[in-house]
């Protein structure tokens, strides 16, 4: 992505430049590029220069769509078409020739290409799509499970419930065979030859076959389907039954401890419990997760999360259970503080980050809460890197910037440099209550940020704290902020110690301009301290103001003027522009 311009004004397009794309035109471009790249896979091997070129063009078209709309590119998958907004990108005249067929049959309804998607991710996804079309996916994977195992960060699928064929034994295999048989039967019925039509196929809508198949086996899951009201209650269990259950759990079986077995039991109970029983089960799960984390059982926790994630992927109805349970890690204070304490212990940070990275993105949305529970900068930096890589917004940093410390600025720096959307964070840090933080932030600002926060920096030149004033002065000089001259001239009329006055005078010399030159001449005339007067002369020489020549010559020719002052004036005269 190109770096944003450092200029704050809007620049008109150059004459003859193409007008910006409308969302409709951008969608059409995406359709053309997608068609070309999928067709290219039929003729070129992976890595071929022509295929790489088509992939690059598709990536560029998606990027232009993001720029034109500011929204993800949502590809709606139909039985034999792909739709983006109101534009039909690809449409087949035969259902069996449709490029969407393998995705549609697995219940894929939408493909979301998020802003920030990389070329490598698009290449991998398109390659998987092509292999699904050619029926060359690994035998143990379908398209959906392969997509989950690949772990795309900026490509997402919206999938309806479909019959599961994984780990289901003979029944699942039989169901799959029946589904395939029904698919072929429907196609034959809808495309059978007419008796007297010269061998032509019956004219039918090209979506009719898969639409009927969808109505039979791919009915989407409604919210009501996820409400479990018919399961037997467990809240009325007697104390004796609870004691017997606990004793059974505490017996060692297969090397597992009571915490792991209990966590698996909670996960299974979540699948059959009533809605009113979920809070009690989740409270139990929180205790178990906290116990495992407190004991440093990271391998067991990671394995449990991965097993639950696999269960949720294999069964479309268990995603709410997965989200409810994994949210406990960061939303419940006790478990969050346990994770924070562990992350700050030597050698455990990487294990905690590995566990967090295994959580669904939904569970990481409360990541900023864990961030502020951490004290060690290295732990905060590792967590921020993880959250950014998973696409978690860090807007909470703006409202809680006052709690950041100077040592935190190192890991905050990449966030502030991420683009214009990071300006509120920089503004919040420039208003930090601690002067040391304000000064340290200023020392890290680039030209683009100086332009964006110029008014704040000009006010900082008159800050009550000398270190902040000094940092702001060094910043405006380093980046040549001419608008600071007026503020600096006004500073000369206030009570300043000799060191700060010298710094302001030199800053005026470096920034230059008529106002700075006039202020230096006036300071030279009224200054009584010999050292400061000599400094003014040298600054006039740096600026090169020819109008100061009579003033400098008058002092340089005085017989009884201090030697250091006369020497400074002679040196300044040598630097002035010639008269006329």
From TrEMBL:
Residues 1-27 are annotated as: Disordered. SMART domains: EZ_HEAT. It holds the Pfam family HEAT_2. InterPro entries: ARM-like, ARM-type_fold, PBS_lyase_HEAT. This is HEAT repeat domain-containing protein.
């Amino acid at each position: 992505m190109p770096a944003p311009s450092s200029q704050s004004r809007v620049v008109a397009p150059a004459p003859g430049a193409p007008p910006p794309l409308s969302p409709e035109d951008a969608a059409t471009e995406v359709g053309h590029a997608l068609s070309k790249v999928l067709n290219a896979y039929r003729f070129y091997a992976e890595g071929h220069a022509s295929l790489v070129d088509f992939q690059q063009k598709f990536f560029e078209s998606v990027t232009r769509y993001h720029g034109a709309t500011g929204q993800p590119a949502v590809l709606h998958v139909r039985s034999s078409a792909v739709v983006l907004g109101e534009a039909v990108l690809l449409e087949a005249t035969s259902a069996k020739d449709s490029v969407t067929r393998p995705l549609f049959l697995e219940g894929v309804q939408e493909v979301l290409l998020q802003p920030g998607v990389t070329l490598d991710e698009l290449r991998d996804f398109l390659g998987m799509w092509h292999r699904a079309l050619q029926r060359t996916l690994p035998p143990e994977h379908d398209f959906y499970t392969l997509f989950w195992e690949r772990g795309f960060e900026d490509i997402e699928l919206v999938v309806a419930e479909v019959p599961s064929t994984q780990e289901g034994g003979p029944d699942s295999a039989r169901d799959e065979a029946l589904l395939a048989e029904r698919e072929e039967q429907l196609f034959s019925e809808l495309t059978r030859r007419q008796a007297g039509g010269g061998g032509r196929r019956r004219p039918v809508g090209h979506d009719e076959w898969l639409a009927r198949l969808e109505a039979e086996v791919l009915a989407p899951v409604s919210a009501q389907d996820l409400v479990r009201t018919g399961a037997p209650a467990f809240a009325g269990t007697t104390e004796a039954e609870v004691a017997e259950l606990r004793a059974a759990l505490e017996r060692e079986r297969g090397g597992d401890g009571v915490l792991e077995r209990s966590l698996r039991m909670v996960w299974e109970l979540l699948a059959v419990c009533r809605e009113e029983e979920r809070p009690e089960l989740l409270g139990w799960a929180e205790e178990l997760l906290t116990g495992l984390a407190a004991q440093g059982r990271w391998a067991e926790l990671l394995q449990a999360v991965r097993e639950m994630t696999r269960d949720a992927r294999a069964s479309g109805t268990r995603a709410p259970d997965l989200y409810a349970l994994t949210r406990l890690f960061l939303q419940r204070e006790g478990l969050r503080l346990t994770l924070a304490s562990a992350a700050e212990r030597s050698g455990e940070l990487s294990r905690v980050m590995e566990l967090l990275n295994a959580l669904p993105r939904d569970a990481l949305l409360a990541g900023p809460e864990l961030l502020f529970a951490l004290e060690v900068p290295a732990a905060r930096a590792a967590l921020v890197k993880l959250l950014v890589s998973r696409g978690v917004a860090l807007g909470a940093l703006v409202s809680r910037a006052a709690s950041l410390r100077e040592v935190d600025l190192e890991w905050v720096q990449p966030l502030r440099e991420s683009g214009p959307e990071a300006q509120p964070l920089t503004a919040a840090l420039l208003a930090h209550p601690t002067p040391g933080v304000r000064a340290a932030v200023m020392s890290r600002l680039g030209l683009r940020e100086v332009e964006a926060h110029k008014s704040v920096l000009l006010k900082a030149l008159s800050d009550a704290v000398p270190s902040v004033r000094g940092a702001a002065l060094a910043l405006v000089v380093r980046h040549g902020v001419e608008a600071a001259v007026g503020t600096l001239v006004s500073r000369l009329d206030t009570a300043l110690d000799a060191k700060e006055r010298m710094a302001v005078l030199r800053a005026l010399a470096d920034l230059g301009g008529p106002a700075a030159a006039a202020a230096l001449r006036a300071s030279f005339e009224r200054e009584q301290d010999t050292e400061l007067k000599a400094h003014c002369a040298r600054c006039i020489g740096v600026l090169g103001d020819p109008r100061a020549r009579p003033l400098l010559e008058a002092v340089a020719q005085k017989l009884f003027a201090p030697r250091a002052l006369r020497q400074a004036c002679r040196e300044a005269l040598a630097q002035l522009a010639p008269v006329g």
